[in-house]
């Protein structure tokens, strides 16, 4: 099988549990370190799928790798090569496929419930799951791309995930590990303790019962990732 291309935009926002999932399933993958100056490949021909991780930047920023990333996403969708996006990655997918990215009414930082939508697309991805607690770390959000279906939402952010066939774009972070959660809290400590918003948790709140929260989230992520890899190109 050709490897999956995993695009990283910040060292501490790597593939996390997704990498563990791929390794456990003996699926090859290649990390493309955008944060270290690596450029997106000119073609998707050498990859079985594309995965875009998070990052603190906006897809509306004038950065040299954004337009090539959007082009790759469009190529992949045209050729039925599965694309998966986490937070910034979901925003890249939305923008590439006809949606827009804009400021969410509030910042979401920490753990929070999301609701699975009552439609066939959502049930195909989540089966019998109707709601779960996931990790949030965003100030912007996206509108749905052309022909996409919202499959996840909450009261603070209308579009938490969308599906377009086998392509999955998420605003929330299902890829988290304990180490990632702690690193993000450490790096952003000053910011989150100054934000007086009910949708932003303190570091101590975020890290309470962390092992159990991450374990439950990994279970949801495994279900999503298991469905997503069924369409990988061999």
Please give a structural write-up.
Helices cover 33% and strands 27% of the residues. The protein is an alpha/beta fold. The chain has a single domain, classed as Rossmann fold. Strands 2-1-3-4-9-8-7-5-6 form a nine-stranded mixed beta sheet. The longest helix has 19 residues, at 210-228. It is globular. The protein starts with a strand and ends in a 6-residue tail after the last helix. The relative contact order is 0.17. The mean pLDDT is 96.
Task: Tell me the number of strands.
Answer: 9
Structural class: alpha/beta
Radius of gyration: 16 Å
- Highest-level CATH class: Alpha Beta
Uncertain segments are none
CATH architecture: 3-Layer(aba) Sandwich
Integer tally of domains: 1
Strand percent estimate: 25-35%
Helical amount among residues, as a percent range? 25-40%
End-to-end gap: 5 Å
Mean pLDDT rating:
96
Q: What is the strand arrangement across the widest sheet?
A: 2-1-3-4-9-8-7-5-6
Topology:
Blueprint: E1 4-8, H1 17-24, E2 29-33, E3 49-52, H2 66-78, E4 83-86, H3 88-96, E5 101-116, H4 120-126, E6 131-142, E7 149-154, E8 157-164, E9 167-170, H5 178-187, H6 189-194, H7 203-207, H8 210-228
Parallel strand pairs: 1-2, 1-3, 3-4, 4-9
Antiparallel strand pairs: 5-6, 5-7, 7-8, 8-9
